[in-house]
Amino acid sequence: xxxxxxxxxxxxxxxxxxxxxxxxxxxxxxxxxxxxxxxxxxxxxxxxxxxxxxxxxxxxxxxxxxxxxxxxxxxxxxxxxxxxxx
Length: 86
What we know:
By secondary structure, this protein is an alpha+beta fold. The chain has one domain (2-85): 2-Layer Sandwich (Histidine-containing Protein, Chain: A), CATH 3.30.1340. Helices cover 38% and strands 29% of the residues. The chain has a four-stranded antiparallel β-sheet with strand order 1-4-2-3, with helices on one face. β2 and β3 (41-44) form a beta hairpin.
């Protein structure tokens, strides 16, 4: 398992547009499971509505965990996406 932490910088936080783009990015990597955690709550990052329900706002720290095939590449792609969009 590969994991990293990221602090959201987008003023609106994780809302519909970037959440949808994140799901699309993760779907490019079949065979990997990406989980996003905030506090005690954890959701599969492919579950768009669950991700948006977490209410992740600017300044919130999240932990991203990647399990499955090619964890390094998936984690790097997700981290790059977060830095560029959130």
